[in-house]
């Protein structure tokens, strides 16, 4: 059972984020596009998808930095630069940040807009 703990540590926030992102895309996203009317084309534009990739890269990098395999190095770096954070960094704070970043990254990937049809 102890060998599965690292797997579930990573998989749980990813699966929860992917599930909520898929639910958003299936139920909420069509309503948002319908309310946008003529501006709905901007949601599926290339620029918006490029920004979406940037918005995925930031929490992905944060999740990598705050994962338990890198937590000691990240904590040492944060303590060497005390002015960067308004609170004292702790291992628990890094763990919570990892869970939140992994959830958000999976959510963004699951809710990523579909590419526009070629004719538009």
Characteristic key phrases:
120 residues, mainly alpha, 0% strand
Give a description of the structure.
With 120 residues, this protein is mostly helical. Helix content is 72%, strand content 0%. The protein has helices at residues 5-36, 40-43, 46-66, 71-80, 91-110. Helix 1 (5-36) packs across helix 5 and helix 3 (46-66) packs antiparallel against helix 5 (91-110). The termini are far apart.
Biggest sheet architecture: none
Helix fraction, binned, reads over 70%
**Overall average pLDDT:** 89
Shape: globular
Give unreliable regions as ranges: none
Number of helices in the DSSP assignment: 5
User: How many domains is the backbone divided into?
Assistant: 1
How much of the sequence is in beta strands? under 5%
Judged by helices, strands and strand pairing, the structural class is mainly alpha
End-to-end CA span: 52 Å
Order of helices and strands: HHHHH
C-alpha-based Rg, rounded: 18 Å
The number of strands is: 0
Short summary of the structure?
The chain has helices at residues 5-36, 40-43, 46-66, 71-80, 91-110. The protein is an all-alpha fold.
Secondary structure elements and pairings:
Layout (H helix, E strand, L loop, with lengths): L4 H32 L3 H4 L2 H21 L4 H10 L10 H20 L10
Helix pairs in contact: 1-5, 3-5
